[in-house]
């Protein structure tokens, strides 16, 4: 049932805006002379700014809030003497008198003091101060906002922004190699959340769906260190002036300004760490400097931050694959394997298992450079530069076991000869293949953000403007090479289940390949790859605000955004050319004659004993480097441009926003945002590879490649987005917020890229493998769907915040979102390909339709998501403190023909997400134990005929411990243990008759020690 029936008429908000404008007409006509009151709220001893302090003119009932530099401002103040009250949560209120005469501008600075402010010599403040700073920013906001202040960031062992966000209500994160990478807000995946740095939109660097759950619109949050930020904010109810594409939330990252520190300051961090799997020493260093200079009667603020980190990570994986099938086998009363009949109870045999060990060697550097010039109290100009880079070398060693049970159309066993034994979670097969491959990639991820702008205040008018540019790149530095070798017809035993598995037996068969002899692993493939994804966003915006009496205001703004998204992808198998050249020989054993030793990785990778031998990666790379020119030129000669694209997306936006104070306790903020989008997908290619078996009678079709050009799509559409919210403060201890908002989510770039890959393979004879039977299976991979429509959402939020005393905050909120035309990516098999509009290859011909379509993106139906958010934080007089949050989410999504007549959760949703932090501190020391919990996450929806292959991410709890000791006012030493309980990341198939894992990843724990200084 749709809750927002009236709200869906986008113009229903217009009468509210007309009434709001009429309310302001008397104020527009006012002619009385009024003055201006400005000032700063700072600490009593050190002149450090307070952000979020509420400053009130008692006689007028008007309120202002202090900005990050402590400044506050009142326009339109009639002549007279007033009582000025300053309220900052966690500090004692303060009152003073101020007199305004005529049209003068009066400057009144205010100092505050609190018992918990231990700020002599500008030392880093503790847990309580960080909580107070964030709570005050949240308290004064009109919209629903959650804040993490820089001082609170430093109290957790978080490595990056994503890990800092996991401490907030309704947020859980996706991890890569144990590090946080993407943020999911209220059950909506990362692509539904807008990310900004200093007000500039940041693009997504990744290409397509990733193992960590990201897409090409998902912004990676592991590239930028949290050490160089002043604060980060998550806004869940967007105002009209905010971007339209914020169905999930807007994450705002704010870098440091010199005015945030009040003058000259210097801070640093030195850290060493070690991960339990790879056991390498890692080093991290961070430094921040600020200063303010007097120039021509004004002030110039300089803030510079820099960080560098080396982090080496090892991880083990044991995998099946989401596109793999399972064979159903049965046992008779005597325990013999038999061919089952449809409807029989069966045991499942995975088609493929993988034993993987990866190393990720990551070097991160980031720098921010900010200039702020304030010639007077009414004007300010700024330049902000953020440049972050991650250089990563990744090595993957993999043993892949192709178990190869024969299956028919019903997914049931057709040939018992190959299955020696089977049980609920065990099995042994005697016709398995073992593939060994090694992949080395070297890539660089960069995020560059530039902004220049200013703010001018003229009487009751405020104008601000900004030009911004963000560039993100995720690309290989050079071509990567992946050789693969195969041994055939081997007996393999396995053990599986929901929590992982292992290979229990590897036995050679007489007269067949010996899995323990490298010479029996023949070269099967040699793949050359290079992938570069770039996202560039250029924007210009202008805002004009008129403030009226009683703090009311009207605001108007324009923004133009030009976005260019490109991908250059090369993936070519040149095994024939490599075999003919003799570069790496015909089998794995030949490498010894080429100066490449085989090493045993079993001791540290978990590979089965005796099968851990793999090429020495350094020696193998040297061999490739000596032959790089030949390998690259060969790949380029065969290059397909299928996966390349160059897209543009231009958005023109305007908005009208009004603020009206019904009283000093009830405020309305609302208006309308209109966004017009022009999108051009560019042209593309379909690439078809035809592979006929030997002796099939069609030798001319062996390794044939065809390319067909396809047109792109140009489209434009307009979204009208009403947004209304009320903030009611019935008492000093209670705040209620109500919001009705709307947002849009544009399709993922990779999902609409024209083109795709077609693989046409001749089927083998059951009686003679490698001999064709004259029929063909055709698979369409990653076909772009240029007809995807944007998803649109209408949203309700009701939130209650209670401050029973200056040490405690409790919050409870309800939210609901109704999303039309949400996106789903899936794999389709058999007749299911018709769901995506493709023809089914019913007769298995070489030029028919398709037998399968993988990575297909579709507009599904409607989805509804609702939930309850609870949070609590409290500090006690004895030094103990506690904070936590719990979010319960429920969603129902109509996946159309993928699940006719059924409702499923939204992909990416966990029913419950929570975090808890408990600790103690005094003037010299603090101890904190923190935990983040996520329930099972619905990770991927499978095709209509294979609902049992839907995948979920298993529930997990990640626990961290942090201890800090203040040596003196300037220096603090600390130690952290990350993932102290060594939680694993497990994906599984919950719908199978016997639940089975898809991937089990272990990344161990990390211990780090360090020292911080502040001057």
Q: What report would you give on this structure?
A:
This protein has 2 domains: 32-114, Immunoglobulin-like (Sandwich); 281-1014, Maltoporin, Chain A (Beta Barrel), CATH 2.40.170.20. The chain is elongated. The two termini are 59 Å apart. The chain has a 30-stranded antiparallel beta sheet that branches. The chain has a 6-stranded mixed beta sheet with strand order 36-35-39-40-44-43, with no helix packed on it. The chain has a 5-stranded mixed beta sheet with strand order 9-14-15-12-13. The protein has 1015 residues and is mostly beta strands.
Topology:
Layout: H1 14-28, E1 34-43, E2 54-57, E3 62-65, E4 71-78, E5 80-87, E6 94-100, E7 105-107, E8 110-112, H2 127-140, E9 145-149, H3 150-153, H4 161-165, E10 171-176, E11 179-185, E12 193-197, E13 200-201, E14 229-235, E15 249-255, H5 258-261, E16 265-275, E17 281-295, E18 298-319, E19 326-331, E20 337-338, E21 347-350, E22 352-376, E23 379-402, E24 419-422, E25 426-458, E26 461-476, E27 480-495, E28 502-507, E29 522-547, E30 553-573, H6 575-581, E31 598-600, H7 602-605, E32 613-615, H8 617-626, H9 628-637, E33 645-661, E34 666-680, E35 684-691, E36 704-710, E37 714-731, E38 734-745, H10 749-752, E39 755-764, E40 772-781, E41 791-805, E42 808-820, E43 823-829, E44 852-859, E45 862-875, E46 880-894, E47 903-904, E48 912-921, E49 925-934, E50 937-940, E51 951-953, E52 956-966, E53 971-978, E54 985-989, E55 996-1002, E56 1006-1014
Parallel strand pairs: 1-7, 1-8, 12-15, 35-39, 40-44
Antiparallel strand pairs: 1-4, 2-3, 2-5, 5-6, 9-14, 10-11, 12-13, 14-15, 16-17, 16-56, 17-18, 18-22, 18-55, 19-20, 19-21, 22-23, 23-25, 24-25, 25-26, 25-27, 26-29, 27-28, 27-29, 29-30, 30-33, 31-32, 33-34, 34-37, 35-36, 37-38, 38-41, 39-40, 41-42, 42-45, 43-44, 45-46, 46-47, 46-48, 48-49, 49-52, ...
């Amino acid at each position: 049932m749709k809750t927002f029936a009236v709200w869906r008429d986008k113009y229903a908000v217009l009468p509210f805006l007309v009434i709001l404008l009429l309310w302001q007409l008397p104020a527009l006509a006012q002619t009385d002379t009024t003055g201006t009151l400005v000032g700063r709220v700072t600490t009593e001893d050190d002149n450090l700014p307070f952000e979020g302090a509420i400053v009130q003119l008692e006689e007028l009932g008007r309120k202002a809030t202090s900005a990050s530099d402590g400044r506050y401002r009142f326009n339109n103040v009639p002549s007279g003497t007033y009582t000025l009250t300053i309220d900052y949560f966690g500090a004692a209120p303060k009152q003073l008198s101020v007199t305004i005469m005529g049209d003068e501008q009066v400057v009144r600075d205010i100092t505050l003091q609190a018992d918990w402010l231990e700020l002599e010599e500008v030392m880093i403040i503790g847990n309580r101060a960080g909580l107070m700073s964030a709570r005050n920013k949240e308290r004064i906001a009109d919209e629903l906002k959650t804040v993490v202040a820089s001082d609170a960031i430093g109290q957790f062992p978080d490595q990056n922004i994503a890990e800092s966000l996991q401490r907030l209500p309704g947020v859980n994160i996706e991890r890569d190699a144990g590090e946080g990478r993407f943020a999911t807000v209220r059950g909506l995946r990362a692509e539904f959340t807008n990310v900004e740095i200093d007000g500039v939109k940041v693009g997504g660097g990744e290409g397509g769906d990733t193992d960590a759950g990201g897409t090409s619109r998902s912004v990676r949050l592991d590239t930028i260190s949290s050490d160089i930020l002043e604060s980060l904010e998550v806004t869940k109810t967007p105002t009209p002036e905010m971007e339209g594409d914020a169905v999930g939330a807007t994450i705002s990252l704010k870098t440091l300004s010199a005015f945030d520190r009040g003058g000259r300051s210097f801070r640093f961090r030195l850290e060493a760490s070690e991960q339990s799997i790879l056991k390498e020493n890692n080093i991290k260093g961070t430094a921040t400097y600020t200063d303010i200079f007097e120039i021509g009667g004004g002030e110039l603020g300089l803030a510079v931050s820099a960080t560098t980190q080396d982090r080496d990570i090892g991880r083990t994986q044991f995998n099946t694959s989401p596109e793999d099938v399972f064979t159903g086998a049965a046992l008779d009363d005597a325990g013999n394997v038999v061919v089952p009949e449809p409807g029989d109870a069966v045991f499942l045999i995975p088609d493929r298992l993988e034993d993987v060990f990866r190393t990720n060697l990551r070097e991160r550097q980031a720098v921010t450079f900010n200039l702020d010039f304030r010639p007077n109290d009414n004007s300010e100009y700024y330049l902000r530069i953020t440049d972050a880079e991650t250089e990563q070398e990744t090595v993957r060693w993999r043993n892949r076991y192709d178990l190869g049970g024969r299956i028919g159309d019903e997914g049931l066993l057709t040939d018992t000869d190959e299955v020696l034994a089977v049980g609920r979670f065990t099995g042994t097969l005697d016709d398995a293949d073992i593939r060994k491959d090694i992949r080395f990639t070297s890539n660089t991820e960069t995020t560059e953000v530039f902004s220049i702008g200013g703010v001018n205040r003229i009487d009751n008018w405020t104008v601000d403007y900004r030009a911004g540019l963000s560039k993100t790149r995720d690309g290989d530095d050079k071509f990567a090479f992946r050789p693969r070798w195969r041994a055939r017809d081997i007996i393999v035993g396995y053990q599986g289940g929901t929590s992982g598995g292992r290979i229990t037996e590897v036995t050679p068969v007489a007269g067949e390949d010996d899995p323990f002899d490298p010479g029996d692993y023949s070269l099967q493939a040699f793949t050359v790859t290079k992938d570069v994804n770039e996202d560039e966003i250029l924007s210009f915006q202008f805002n004009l605000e008129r403030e009226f009496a009683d703090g009311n205001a009207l605001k108007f703004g324009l923004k133009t955004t030009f976005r260019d998204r490109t991908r250059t992808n090369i993936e070519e198998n040149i095994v024939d050319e490599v075999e003919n050249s003799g570069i790496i020989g015909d089998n794995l054993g030949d490498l010894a004659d080429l100066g490449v030793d085989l090493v045993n990785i079993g001791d540290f990778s978990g590979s089965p004993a005796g099968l851990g031998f793999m090429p020495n990666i350094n020696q193998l790379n040297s061999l490739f480097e000596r032959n790089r020119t030949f390998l690259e030129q060969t790949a380029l000669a065969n290059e397909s441009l299928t996966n390349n694209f160059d897209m543009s997306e231009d958005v023109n936006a305007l908005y009208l926003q009004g603020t009206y104070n019904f009283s000093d306790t009830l405020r309305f903020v609302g208006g309308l945002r209109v966004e017009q989008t022009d999108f051009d997908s560019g042209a593309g290619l379909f690439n078809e590879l035809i592979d006929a078996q030997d002796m099939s009678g069609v030798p001319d079709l062996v390794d044939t490649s065809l390319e067909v050009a396809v047109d792109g799509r140009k489209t434009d559409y307009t979204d009208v987005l009403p947004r209304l919210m009320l903030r009611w403060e019935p008492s000093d201890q209670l705040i209620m917020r109500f919001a009705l908002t709307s947002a849009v989510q544009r399709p993922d770039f990779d999902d609409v890229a024209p083109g795709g890959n077609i693989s046409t393979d001749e089927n083998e004879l059951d009686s003679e493998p490698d001999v064709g039977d004259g029929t063909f299976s055709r698979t369409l991979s990653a076909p772009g769907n240029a007809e995807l429509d944007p998803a649109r959402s209408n949203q309700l939020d009701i939130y209650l915040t209670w401050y029973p005393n200056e040490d405690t905050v409790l919050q409870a909120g309800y939210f609901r979102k109704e999303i039309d035309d949400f996106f789903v990516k899936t794999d389709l098999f058999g007749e299911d390909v018709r769901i995506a509009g493709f023809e089914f290859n019913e007769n298995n011909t070489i030029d028919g339709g398709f037998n399968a379509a993988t990575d297909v993106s579709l507009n599904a139906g409607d989805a509804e998501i609702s939930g309850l958010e609870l949070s609590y934080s409290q500090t006690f007089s004895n030094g103990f403190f506690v904070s936590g949050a719990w979010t319960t989410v429920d969603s129902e999504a109509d996946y159309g023909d993928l699940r006719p007549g059924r409702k499923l959760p939204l992909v990416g949703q966990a029913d419950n997400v929570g975090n808890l932090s408990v600790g103690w501190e005094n003037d010299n020391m603090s101890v904190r134990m923190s935990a983040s919990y996520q329930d099972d996450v619905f990770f991927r929806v499978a095709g209509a005929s294979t609902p049992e292959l839907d995948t979920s991410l298993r529930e997990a709890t990640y626990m961290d411990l942090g201890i800090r000791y203040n040596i003196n006012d300037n220096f603090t030493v600390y130690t952290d243990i990350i993932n102290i309980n060594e939680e694993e990341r497990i994906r599984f198939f919950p719908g199978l008759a016997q639940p089975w894992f898809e991937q089990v990843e272990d990344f161990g724990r990390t211990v780090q020690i360090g020292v911080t200084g502040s001057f």
